[in-house]
Each structure stands twice: as structure tokens, then as C-alpha cells.
Amino acid sequence: MKDRRKEDVLLEVEGLRTYFEKNGVTVKAVDGISFTIHRGEIIGIVGESGSGKSVTCLSILRLIQQAKGRIIFRGKDILSMKEKELEKIRGASISMVFQDASFALNPYRKISSQIIETIRMHQGLTKAEARQKAIEALALVGLPDPQNRMDDYPDQFSGGMKTRIMLAIALCCGAELIIADEPTSSLDVTVQATILDLIKSINEKNGTSILLISHDLNVIAELCNRVHVMYKGHIMESATVSELFDRPLHPYTRSLLSASRGDNEQVLYISGEEENESPCPFYPRCQERQLNCLTSPPPTISCGEQHLVSCWKYSDGRS
């Protein structure tokens, strides 16, 4: 992978924290994560359900008000923007494909009205101009007969076609960054492959940066340049995709890879909800824990070019 320069950075997340209060208890959904997205690259975030992946996405677009830290997009902090300035970015410069298109699309409105509304809001076109642009966007994502079908309702489309429509809405205003949250969930294998090919094509043809959220390491391997492994609101390991698959370091990463390969003997056993007395979120499940794990948060160690791991095991420089 070629070197990236500072001026190539499109989005920079610094110390993002998103906490919720529930029955007097603080839930740290995202707990101080940092990462960058460069222009034209596909970044993956992978982890189990509840690891903080989706909350990270919603925080970037400030759809969750509890987010703290810094999210720098084209030199400006999203978390410090006024609502009017933020509205110019959402759906235009940064678009999101939500996890289930069936719920993201309004079932009571035609597809045409939903996509035309987005175009007119951000580009100020006439209704006729916006309609033509909507047809072009739907054609770009491979929706059959878009000129006629765009006046259908969402329930007249399959799950895969609904995902294509969500991608068209994300693309119609020339987004520089698309956040795709589990875009292939609930789709069969054949349709999944088609959607992944489409996302890859969008990236290659338009130079669109993509933040891809998934629990499926096979999807990450297929599409991404770099990947961040999340667990309980923390990034445990970051690397290029080839490096992560060839040399996984964190015990959690190795367990995820074993699970994806069906190697059940290597998958970590989860013995219920153990109380965590360690600053390391993975401590209760880790089979390689050390005394240091009980006293201080794990340091982030560089174990090669673009390969970082948050684990005391590598603090002596061995990897």
C-alpha cells in the first residue's frame, strides 16, 4: 500500500468517546478511539455485536449527541459545528448507508420522493433536474429500469435492491465519504457478493472513501485497505488487511479469525458476564493476560508499519 501524506487525510477521529447513562450506570459504548480515513481508501471496522461499531458511525455524523472528542473533516471539527453547517455535510459530503435498508427507507413514500428530496436539499435543483439526477444515480448502482421503477414504493423491491437504492441516495450528491454499516446483513450470499462488487466499483470509479462496518472478516478481507478491530468501545488492533490476516497479534483478533475459519478449538470460550477488574476490556476472556493487565491500561504498541496493537504482551518489543 502506498504511503499516505497528511494532506490526503479526509477524516480524522481523535479520542472519540460516546457514553450513555442507564439506571445510574455509565455505559462506555465508544471509549477514546482514534483513527484516520484517507481520500479514496476503504477502511474497515470489525468486531462482535456490542463492540461499538455502529455507535462510532452515528457519532461521526453527530446523530448521537453524547459524542465527545474531535472528528475533523476537511479541517473542521464536526462536533463543534453549528447545526446549519452540519446539515450541509450530512447526506452530501458524508453519507450513510444504514444497516437495514428496509427500515431506513420510508415505506409510505415513493423511492423518487426520497432521493429527489436529498438532491434538492443539498444542490438546489428544480424538481425536474433532481428527478433526472436521481435516475442517473439509480442507474449507476444497477437498479433495473430506474426511470419507471423509481416511482415504486420500498416494499416493491427485494432486500438487495433496497440496499442499491440506499447507495444511490448516498451517491446522488457526490459524497466524499460513505459510511456503510453492515450493508450486506440479512442478504443471501449471491446478493452480498453483488453489493460488495458495487461498493468496490464506487470506490474505484469515483474515488469515494468508504468506512465499512462489519462483523464478517471475509467481507473486510474482500474490500478494505486497512482494518480496526474493536472490542467494548476500544480499538484493540489496527493494520493493513494483508498484515492483519497474515500476522494477527491481539488474542481477540486471533479468536475472531479462528471463528471465521470455523476453527472451533481456537475460539475463546465465553464464561458468562465476568466482572472486569482490569483496565483492559478484554481481560476476562484473555488466555494470555499478565500482571500488568491488572494495574494499567494496555499501551498501544507499534509492531510494524501501520500495525498497532493495544496489549501488554507486546510492550517488550517482541511480536
Major sheet: arrangement of strands: 6-7-8-3-9-10-12-11
Structural classification? alpha/beta
Mean pLDDT: 89
* Relative strand content: 15-25%
Mind telling me the CATH class?
Alpha Beta
**First CA to last CA: what distance?**
21 Å
Q: Helix amount, in percent?
A: 25-40%
Features:
33% helix, eight-stranded mixed sheet, 24% strand, alpha/beta, four-stranded antiparallel sheet, 12 strands, 319 residues, Rossmann fold
List the helices and strands and how they pair.
Blueprint (H helix, E strand, L loop, with lengths): L8 E14 L2 E14 L3 E5 L6 H8 L6 E7 L2 E2 L5 H7 L4 E4 L3 H4 L6 H13 L3 H14 L5 H4 L9 H13 L5 E5 L7 H18 L2 E6 L2 H7 L2 E6 L2 E7 H6 L4 H10 L39 E3 L5 E3 L9
Parallel strand pairs: 3-8, 3-9, 6-7, 7-8
Antiparallel strand pairs: 1-2, 1-4, 4-5, 9-10, 10-12, 11-12
Helix pairs in contact: 4-5, 5-7, 7-8
What does this structure look like?
The chain has 319 residues and is of the alpha/beta class. Helix content is 33%, strand content 24%. The protein contains 11 helices and 12 strands. The strands form 2 sheets. The chain has an 8-stranded mixed beta sheet, with helices on both faces. A hairpin with a 5-residue loop joins β11 (300-302) and β12. The model has no long low-confidence stretch (mean pLDDT 89).
Summarize the structure.
The protein has 319 residues and is of the alpha/beta class. Helices cover 33% and strands 24% of the residues.
